[in-house]
Amino acid sequence: MPHPAYMPFVLPNTPGFSSPVSNSVRLTPLPPAPSGAPAAPGPVTTGTGRTLYASFAGAPCTQESGTGTQASPYCLLQDAVNAAQPGDTVDVLSSTGSSSQESVTVRTSGISIVGTGPQAWVSAGNANSGKPALVLDHVSNVTVSNLMLTSWGNATAVEVIGSTGVTIDSSFVSTSNNPTGADALTIDGASSNVTVSRTYVDTGFSRTGARAISVASGARTVSLAGDVLADAGITATGVNGLNVVGNTIQRGCGSAVDLEGTSSGVSVENNLIEDANPSTDYMGTYQSNCSGYGLTWAPDVTVSPGSAAGTTADYNDFYVYGNDATAPYSWAGTTYPTLAGFQSAVAQGAHDTNDTKQATSTGLRPNTSSLVDIQPQVGSAAINSANPAAPGALGSDFFGTSPHTSRGAEEFDANPNLAVALTGTDNTAYSVYVGINATSDVQTLTYDIAWGDGTTTHATGRPDSPPESPHTYPQLGTYTAKVTVTDQFGNAVTNSITVTTSGSEYVAFGPTRLLDSRDGSGTPQVGAYSTTRVQVAGANGIPAGATAAVLNVTVTGTTGAGHVTVFGDGSAAPTTSNVNYMAGQTVPNMVVAPVGAGGYVDLVNAGPSLDLVVDITGYFVRSSAAGYTPLSPSRLVDTRYGTGAPQSQVGAGQALPVRIAGAAGGQLPTSGITAVALNVTVTNPGTAGHLTVYPGGQQAPNASNLNFTAGQTVANSVVVPVGSDGTIQVLNAAGASSDVIVDVVGYYSPAGRSAYLPVTPTRLLDTRDTTKWQYGPVAPWSYVYMPVSGQPDITAFALNATMTNTTSDGHLSVAPDPNTLTQYAQNTFAPLSPPSVSSLNWTAGGTVPNLVQTPTGANNIIDFWNGAGGTSDLIVDMFGFYQNN
Q1: Chain segment 218-242, per-residue pLDDT in tens
Q2: Exposed, middle or buried: residue 882 (CB in 10 Å: 0-12, 13-18, 19+)?
């Protein structure tokens, strides 16, 4: 009855990959974080004139000491304005915490007054309390940008009087100590072509119904665009041409927009209109307080009967706080409690929306309390819904972000935390797994992965549940996978990760001798219980990136029993063995050794001093070369019976040609083979010697594959390049003739699909170990069956099999099992006969190792046959496996 030996699967030693979140690249622009001021154009000129400088760093200033240069700026803005001529620019230098207490009047046309930084502040206090901070008095073509303008004592902060072509942009306008209710910014009826844009306006703690912006009857062509109004609104009376567009108005008790008298040419579009509320409004005129101030809670937009015919209202977004039940419109004397009612009764507001998402508040300037609900949040109806063709619409928002496609003054914050980090691990020989860690305030995301081989993956998911991302590459190599994460609003971020497939393919090389301690080539004699190492990668024409090497390791000059273990440098010595020896023996064995740190392979001699010989016949690299194709073991040559060669021994010093291309009953292709995996056996040798296997058409190298003494039968695995003529040569380097047996177990070619994955050498079975094996030595003419991993597409394993405590002469055969594990469990398996090929041979009492490259077969079970009349102990170590794509 055969016994099972279950294989613990060993993962290959492959490094992981990563690309941290700091490598993410945003594909959509991120709005700048509010820095305390709207985006300002900085010092600009409207002509070819001079730049005069003013600074309030020494405020308060009562006596002018500056000359207007940058080194000696004016300390009074009025002096700088008075000195300016048409075409000049007055640059007001910021000084946080300092302000001028002036009331400034501009009477010179064609100049620009530009603040630099977040706090170029005119605060008309003390002696100027009760006066405006700024008056534009009968001027034309004047630009005021990025100033803070504050009035005290019941005064308007900014007055525009009889002026035309005036622009106030990116500024801060506020009244303080305003109990009588002065409006914050007024435009008189004699003014025209006035623009107030990207400007914050409030009326302080006024609870009298004061308005943020007031436009008097007779004014013409006024544009109020991209502004933020706090706790107040806009009143325009009898205006001819008014655009109220793209503003965020957190209204107080009065309407956000109030059109009185007979106004014409009015457009009210793309505005976000919100209720003042106790959660963010520090000024207090929200609905529950209005009656206490003697005020009523008006509709959001009021359009008088005289203005209705000349007004267009659309694309506005209304947010009602709590239970305010705010009416959106009073139109031509009729109040409409609901937006739907207004839309059905009036041919206006077709694209207006009710918003359920409260915007979040933002502080706008240092040393101020300007908190307004300005930032749209995920799910807001304002996002990406503005009418780009609205009259007077700006191309950028309150902070200068463009394009500006949302309603209100600020563009949607574009998911500012959107980022993606990537990790990568090798999944199989040809496949990788990319882990995606997305950070997003938006929960609906799409993931697009360009794998770097021309294929892509598209999936949807949440940040906390990204798609599973394994991918199989058609060829081994290094690829750059690019992951793009896009939210439902079109914001996108990308990151890339460089991955290398873990599988390796074979490159035929040599045979070449790397070490021979007998003649000092590489190292002197190896001491007892010591380690020597040999450089494989990065030397002798072998690339530094080689992952494993096919070595023939021979021990000779032995004076006692022991074994040699081969492993990658930099790793702990495993508990496995590769070559076992007794005193006076010369023993070879093929090793597929992992290449370790610096390209070195270590060899540990667990026994008395000896000589080591190391030959290389090929190496593996993590790129396309020659893949492996395993075969059912097949005999190519047996000179004892005339199989594949004449029925006669190979003469002393003679080479036997062996046809590889097209052989093994057609299992071997007629072309394309770069190397072949063999088990070569010498038997009946007349004298001691060695066999050397090498490519056909070449000279025999200074290398050996197996060593023998007279009358000894010795087997060894061989991986040898195939000559251009499709043959190999087997040289009998002995003083007498010998029989030669050649079995094929697989081959390497560019068309081969299986790549090699080296693992940390691991012991799978030791029948001597009673703690893990209960059945004792393998019985005569019986076998151990080993179920191997069910990992996908594993086609073959690289194992080292050792027979010890042998009680009679014999041989080991290793082959796939035609039975299934279920058949063994149910005792319905079919009886088997030993295979006709052998993997290693021994004489009674001997300990013999050999590398076995064995296919897994259809059922993923490998059999180890004891072809002897006596019991033997079996040791099986694993060094790697082959896997398809």
Answers
A1: 999 999 999 999 989 999 999 999 9
A2: buried
